[in-house]
Design a protein that fits this description.
This protein is α/β, with parallel strands linked by helices. It is built from 7 helices and 7 strands; from the N terminus they run E-H-E-H-E-H-E-H-H-E-H-E-E-H. It has a single domain (9-178), classed as 3-Layer(aba) Sandwich (Rossmann fold). Strands 3-2-4-5-1-6-7 form a 7-stranded mixed beta sheet, sandwiched between helices. Helix 2 (48-60) links the parallel strand 2 and strand 3. It comes from [Phormidium ambiguum] IAM M-71.
Length: 187
């Protein structure tokens, strides 16, 4: 594992249960900065399985970390963080799902604000993102809409990240070393 030095933007992506959150947590710990875990998930006491997933994530985190619940306003939160902080945003997929109802014009404005904020932020930011586009095209419009939006977000964050990792099957690949970056535009 490489320690984070100076201001870093890192993207950790991969499929469900691959180890991506654990890898992101280890990177945050290695930063040596004050870690603020940005939880994009919205709690639902009526969904015991969802609450168990949230609890599992919380149990892994050191007690010294702060946890902020930020289901929507990521750009504002990142903008307000100081340079001594390392923000761990888990996850972009949940954030996109929380904003799925926004119309295309609103969405473009929200995404543009996030990307500009990340490019100009003073703190370290580690994003966790799900890879949802490796399977079949969903048969229903909202599934396709979510998959396409998340894919574009991941691509655009990856284009501005200092480091991008793919975690799959419990293994970490440094895509920044192994891959070639494309432009950040997404069609």
């Amino acid at each position: 594992m490489t320690e984070i030095s100076s201001r870093q933007v890192i993207l950790v992506t991969g499929p469900a249960r691959s180890g991506k959150s654990e890898w992101a947590e280890s990177l945050a710990e290695a930063s040596g900065k004050s870690v603020i875990y940005i939880a994009t998930a919205q709690k639902d006491p009526n969904d015991s399985e969802w609450m168990a997933r949230i609890a599992q994530h919380a149990q892994r985190r050191p007690s010294s970390w702060q946890t902020w619940e930020v289901p929507i306003n990521l750009a504002v939160t990142i903008k307000e963080a100081n340079s001594c902080s390392c923000l761990l945003v888990d996850s972009l997929g949940t954030w996109v799902a929380n904003l799925l109802e926004s119309d295309p014009t609103q969405w473009e404005k929200i995404l543009k604000e996030l990307l500009e904020t990340v490019e100009n932020c003073n703190c370290d930011v580690i994003f966790v993102a799900e890879e949802t586009g490796w399977g079949v095209v969903p048969a229903y419009p909202s599934g396709r809409h979510f998959r396409d939006r998340l894919g574009c977000v991941v691509r655009q964050v990856g284009a501005i990240a200092n480091l991008t990792y793919l975690v799959t099957a419990g293994h970490v690949l440094n895509l920044s070393q192994l891959g070639t970056a494309l432009n950040k535009k997404c069609n």
